[in-house]
Structures are given as C-alpha cells and as structure tokens.
C-alpha cells in the first residue's frame, strides 16, 4: 500500500469537504443516545440482553442502505483485532469505551463514514453524525432523519414527561450531545483558553480534548459540547451551542490578528521552525507532532505557508496516532519505533505536497 492509498483509506470522505468557518471549526458532530424498550440498559443488563440488542441491529440494519450515507456495515468488537479497534477510535467512529466491550460491543459504520452507530456502549445505541466546519443545524436535521429511520424498526425506551431514557442522567430528555471540534492556537498561545473554558462551563457547556471526556487538548484542538439535555429542546441546545461557538470563533480571529500585530516575526519564526521539524525530523513524539502540526495549520490559515493542503492537520492528527502507525507498519510497534514511523510518515506526507 502506498502512502497515498493509506491516506485515502485513513481519511473519511466527508473530511475532504469544507464547511462554514472551516479555518477554525474542523468538524461538527451530533450524537443521539437511544435505548431499546423493555431491555436492561448496558450499564445494568447482563450479556444475554446485550446480545439481544446486537442481534436486532445486525438483522435490521447490517448491509442496509440509507440516503446519502449509503450502505451500513456492522463491525463486531469480538471480530476486530486490537489495532483495528484503535484505528476506529482514532477516526472517531467509536469510543474507547466501546472498544473494551469485546463480547457484545459493535459499531455500524456508513459507507461514507459520515455516520456511525455504537452498539452496547453506555447505551444500546449511540447514533453519531459528522459534518465539516460549523454546520450544527444541518447536522441536527440529518441526524433526526437517521434517527427516524432507526425508529421505524426499533421501539425506543421513552417517557412522555422525561423524554428518551438513557443510562446517564445528563443524557435523559433529548439524548442529544452536540459538539464542535475547534482549532484555537491563538487563544491557546495567549493563555486565554485557561480563562474561557471555566466561563463556557458556567453556561452549561463543556470544553474537552480531541478524544472527548478526560482527553488532552493536543494541537490546540478542543471540543465544545452541551452538557445537559433534560428540559431543553434539540433546537434550544443547538442554538445555545451555536451562539457560544460563534463568540469563540470571533475571539480566536481577534487573537490571531493581535498576535500577528504584536509578535509577527516571532510567530512566523515559530511556524516555520515547526514546519522544519515536521519536514526533517527522524524521531518525533506525538505531543511535539501535534504542536508542530497546529503551528503549520495556523501558518496556512494566515497565508504564510502556501504550498501545503489545509487538510494537513486533520490528516496527520489521525495518521500519526498509535493505531494507524501500527496499521501502516503492519506490525506491533514499541513507543520508540512509533516515534520513528511517525516522523517518517510526516516527512513522506509533506513530500507529496511537492508533486
């Protein structure tokens, strides 16, 4: 497999498109938590009840096509190798928690990888849908349609007063978790994110790292999402998140202008030094790679680097993760070997931009 083939396989097709404010907002995700009626939730049920859910999903939805998402394919955790599970996590097609359910866990993935449905994670079903850039309203609209398609063949656990019933109380109601992945290098450089994150939390939203709860904000990438769903409509949740995200976008743009005005030559030096590290390093750790990729993407957005694709951050933040590196190497790698493969892959990827 050539590097180009590997990239095409690694990057989901929807990631090659651009959406609104895509210089700052990398992606929008809508996730709906759903459970089957009269079946114990995964957090309290036994293996037999989870197997019942898995059988239902396999019979009703595996190899079935729906709208622009095309055919859905079921991947059972019991059939997947550890490195394959890790790759699916790194592509955000499923959560680390699901990977641990090796007996009854599964994920239903659409052909274009824009939609995936986790089976027997914290809830029976977790439908998630991705869009490039800031597209909360459109993503919600399509997620609702996908949810309707599932509900035609599934009886959901639902209460007239409480709404959709879920394992975690914070998801009861709409079961909606809307999140936006943002690249905020200027706010990070100026230490404003340390101040803004607690203020955003006070508004009922939460700021997390690239892989969600408990993860680190590598490469100045942050997820901003709603925290509560009970007592609010889906439209209200989206409107509140949209409003806060727009303010963060404006703050990031202002910070970029301020940094360029106050420290233009130092910023350029940092950006091109980072590019040099990526282009010439023989060994590079994941944190350093993420920091340098963030700098280079900022340089592209500011018009300082003109010969590199805007998707370089999206691509290499996925391609340089441990699972993909081992998939590319076709063998298990020790940490020092991963650092070598990571540097080699980044150099090769940057060389592709010259052709």
From TrEMBL:
Appears to be allosterically activated by the binding of pArg-containing polypeptides to the pArg-binding pocket localized in the C-terminal domain of McsB. Its EC number is 2.7.14.1. Keywords: Allosteric enzyme, ATP-binding, Kinase, Nucleotide-binding, Transferase. Pfam families: ATP-gua_Ptrans. A motif (RDXXRA motif of the pArg binding pocket involved in allosteric regulation) lies at residues 338-343. Catalyzes the specific phosphorylation of arginine residues in a large number of proteins. Is part of the bacterial stress response system. Protein arginine phosphorylation has a physiologically important role and is involved in the regulation of many critical cellular processes, such as protein homeostasis, motility, competence, and stringent and stress responses, by regulating gene expression and protein activity. This is Protein-arginine kinase. It comes from Alkalibacillus flavidus. The lineage of its organism: Bacteria, Bacillati, Bacillota, Bacilli, Bacillales. The gene is mcsB.
């Amino acid at each position: 497999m050539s590097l180009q083939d590997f990239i095409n396989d690694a990057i989901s097709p929807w990631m090659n498109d651009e959406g609104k404010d895509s210089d700052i907002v990398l992606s929008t995700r809508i996730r709906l938590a759903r459970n089957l009626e009269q079946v114990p939730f995964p957090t309290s049920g036994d293996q037999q009840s989870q197997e019942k859910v898995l059988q239902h999903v396999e019979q009703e939805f595996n190899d079935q096509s729906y709208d622009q998402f095309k055919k859905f394919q079921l991947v059972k955790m019991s059939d997947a190798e550890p490195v394959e599970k890790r790759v699916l996590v790194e592509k955000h097609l499923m959560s680390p928690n699901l990977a641990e359910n090796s007996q009854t866990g599964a994920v239903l993935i659409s052909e274009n990888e824009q939609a995936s449905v986790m089976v027997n994670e914290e809830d029976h079903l977790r439908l998630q849908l991705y869009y490039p850039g800031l597209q909360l309203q459109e993503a919600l609209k399509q997620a609702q349609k996908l949810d309707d398609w599932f509900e035609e063949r599934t009886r959901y656990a639902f209460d007239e007063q409480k709404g959709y019933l879920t394992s975690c109380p914070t998801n009861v109601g709409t079961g909606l978790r809307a999140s936006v992945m943002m690249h905020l290098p200027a706010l990070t450089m100026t230490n404003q994110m340390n101040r803004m994150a607690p203020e955003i939390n006070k508004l009922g939203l939460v700021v997390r790292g690239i892989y969600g709860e408990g993860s680190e904000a590598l490469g100045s990438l942050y997820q901003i999402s709603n925290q509560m769903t009970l007592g609010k409509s889906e439209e209200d949740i989206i409107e509140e998140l949209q409003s806060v995200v727009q303010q963060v976008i404006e703050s990031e743009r202002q910070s970029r202008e301020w940094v360029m005005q106050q420290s233009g030559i130092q910023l350029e030096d940092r950006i091109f030094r980072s590019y040099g590290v990526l282009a010439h390093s023989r060994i590079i750790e994941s944190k350093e790679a993420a920091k340098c990729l963030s700098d280079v993407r900022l340089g592209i957005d500011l018009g300082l680097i003109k010969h590199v694709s805007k998707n370089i951050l999206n691509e290499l933040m996925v391609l340089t993760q441990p699972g993909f590196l081992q998939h590319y190497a076709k063998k298990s790698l020790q940490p020092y070997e991963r650092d070598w493969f990571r540097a080699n892959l980044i150099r090769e990827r940057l060389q592709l931009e010259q052709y």
